[in-house]
Specification:
By secondary structure, the chain is an alpha/beta fold. The protein has a domain of 217 residues: 3-Layer(aba) Sandwich (Rossmann fold). 42% of the residues lie in helices and 16% in strands. It has twelve helices and 13 strands. It has a seven-stranded parallel beta sheet, with helices on both faces. Strands 7-10 form a two-stranded parallel ribbon. It has a two-stranded parallel ribbon with strand order 8-13. Helix 1 crosses helix 7, helix 2 packs across helix 4 and helix 4 runs parallel beside helix 5. The longest helix has 23 residues. The structure holds nicotinamide-adenine-dinucleotide (NAD). Nicotinamide-adenine-dinucleotide binds next to helix 1, strand 2, helix 4 and strand 5.
Length: 346
Amino acid sequence: MRILVTGGCGFIGSHLVKKLLSMREIERVINLDSLTYAGQPYNLVDVENHRNYKFIHGSINDIELIGEILSSEAIDSIINLAAESHVDRSIGSVNEFIKTNIDGTRCILEQIVEHKNKGVDINLIQVSTDEVYGSLKPEEAPFVEETPLRPMNPYAATKASADMLVQSFVNTHGICAAITRCSNNYGPNQFPEKLIPLMILNSLEGKSLPVYGDGKQIRDWIHVSDHVSGIIATLKAVEENKVDSPFVINFGADNEMTNLEIVETVIEIIGVGREMIQFVSDRPGHDRRYAMGYGKAWELLSWEPLVMWREGITETVEWYLSNPEWIESIRSDEYRTWLENHYGRD
Ligand SMILES: NC(=O)c1ccc[n+]([C@@H]2O[C@H](COP(=O)([O-])OP(=O)(O)OC[C@H]3O[C@@H](n4cnc5c(N)ncnc54)[C@H](O)[C@@H]3O)[C@@H](O)[C@H]2O)c1
């Protein structure tokens, strides 16, 4: 298999690239990443000289570049993770989200059609999110693949739009695609604007721990390695023609926890006091609860999450403690400015 991964320098993408490079049946992994503030080439320092790997600095909005890569590298499948991924930033301005998440996906789709018209079939794995389903009430059952899309924030709306574009291209142009929707990920290498790494780094630096609203928003936390194994299981099922197109699949971890419980676990592991928690005004339009049903993934892909929460979060905290050079590499001026604008100076 010859794979184009987009957004491979990000959190999930970098774990995926490393996993793909460890697999015998993968002949080539091309990583196309435009290196936004969230893209860290340092995440892939261990594999940068791997003979089957190539990094290309460029954007999924560059339709000609995508076409060139697909042809020159004889790509079989694209796994599209390139995205603006932070809800808070999409509330500030949605422009980049529309550009990357929707229009970038359009560029990929158009190139797949162009190749199909020349007799070359390329599969697409579109990495989406549970956020496209909207928010659940406490008594409601977890989302399933048939749950209608009801995105409630600008980030989620751009991801849902991309999903719909993918579905429409399958229906109209007969391309082969899968859409994966996963719950909140955690693990090493996550950029510290997201809840868990922000809490770890602030705890280590003796800063306050900002928690939105009452902290009772519920998410179904999954370890990044389980998400990656779900993406790979989907890729194989699509490559082996075992599933219909478009194949929509949910991944979750049966691990519903409130944000406050997450913060309490982190500070207990690190050993700082509860007085560090600081409740701040809630995010506008903050979804209350997400939970993912993954029965279909179990039934069709024999996939299930393997990492237990306590083990995964302890290992994640330890990773941040033992990788100060990674922390230094992501401490860009832009990140500092964003933190200050968002939560105020500490
Ligand atoms: N993090 C989660 O909890 C989670 C959960 C479910 C789904 N997802 C989805 O998984 C994907 C990856 O998420 P993540 O958390 O790793 O994100 P991330 O923000 O850590 O990484 C995104 C990567 O995309 C790159 N990128 C951005 N715009 C680009 C462009 N125009 N062209 C090429 N590269 C570009 C960035 O440089 C970065 O390396 C996203 O599509 C996201 O919606 C994330």
